[in-house]
Amino acid sequence: MTESGETDIWRDTWVRYLGYANEVGESFRALVSYKIVRFSYVVAFAYTFADTGDKSYKMLKTDGRPKKVLIEAGDVLIWQTLASVIIPGFVINRLCAYSSMGLKRFTKISPMTRNWMAVGIGLSSIPFIVRPIDSGTTWFMDSTYRRWVKNEL
After folding, report:
1. For residue 85, how many other CB atoms are within 10 A of its CB?
2. Is residue 18 within 8 Å of residue 47, measured between CB atoms?
3. Is residue 69 within 8 Å of 63, Cβ to Cβ?
4. Alpha-carbon separation of residue 146 from 9, 55, 71, 127, 152 (angstroms)
5. Among 144, 39, 44, which residue's Cα sits nearest to residue 89?
6. Is the pLDDT at 88 greater than 50, yes or no?
7. What span, in angstroms and rounded, lies between the C-alpha atoms of 2 and 81?
8. Count of CA atoms in the C-beta half-sphere (13 A) of 15
9. How confident is the model at residue 1 (pLDDT cuts 50, 70, 90)?
10. Could you give phi then psi for residue 71, rounded to 5 degrees?
């Protein structure tokens, strides 16, 4: 929820999962073209920029001071880039890679089946990593950027 108590469509609804499109791409990395994986990052960054634009516009309407709008835009852009693209992309990438390596021990399972199993592991982990990553990113932002710009407001 936002500070005003209204629902934030970008963080409190199913729309939040659009930011995780690149995790779906990372999960399927072993089975699809790199172009599809790259496109999933385009979707995730589009979501990130949409949230940044929305919150910047709302700040412009409510306050109008360019410095405050820039600080808000920076906050949202950094938060979304970390929480929606960089951290979860890395987590899913590594989870799928290590799963694939671990599954290679099972030589009776075909390589295609092992790849699909790694995809399943990656996809099924997405709902479980969203809240911890969001919370950790919020803590990080509160400890760094938001603390640094507090005096500028």
Report:
1. 20
2. yes
3. yes
4. 22, 16, 9, 27, 10
5. 44
6. yes
7. 19
8. 13
9. very low
10. -65, -45
Query: Which amino acid makes up residue 106?
Result: F
100 C-beta neighbours (distance < 10 Å), count:
19
Angle at 61 between CA 1 and CA 72, to 5 degrees: 55
pLDDT digits (tens, 9 = 90+) for 22-53: 999 999 999 999 999 999 999 999 999 999 99
Q: Are 10 and 20 in contact (CB under 8 A)?
A: no
What's the chain's length in residues? Answer: 153
Q: Give the global pTM.
A: 0.87
- Which residue type is seen at 9? I
